[in-house]
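Worked example

This section walks through a single chain of length 123. The input is the sequence exactly as stored; nothing has been trimmed or padded.
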Amino acid sequence: QLQASGGGLVQAGGSLRLSCAASGRTFSRYAMGWFRQAPGKEREFVAAISWSGVNTYYADSVKGRFTISRDNAKNTVYLQMNSLKPEDTAVYYCAAKPYLSGSYYHSTAYDDWGQGTQVTVSS
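Given that input, the structure is written out below as tokens.
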């Protein structure tokens, strides 16, 4: 089970930190990802991190502004979002990816999803 939190309303240029707490599985065996879905749009990849935390992956649209990290001792993955833009407005979902299940960038590689947390960036 994944529980995302930390969303909210922020002005453009501001920051938010999302958290996703995992339970019910061996967290350190799974890569983790963040996806987002804006109204009327398909869910899109945002960032992912390998099980060890050594490798990270980002969508071009957030590279240099967002940072994904994880704390395996706390079974939690984070998404630090800086320099937020109105186009970052979406529901953000965390997801767990089993080993060798496919590309980090594709939602089909993830087998468990959190409930989503709303991020709204005002201009």
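What to look for: The chain has no helices and eleven strands.
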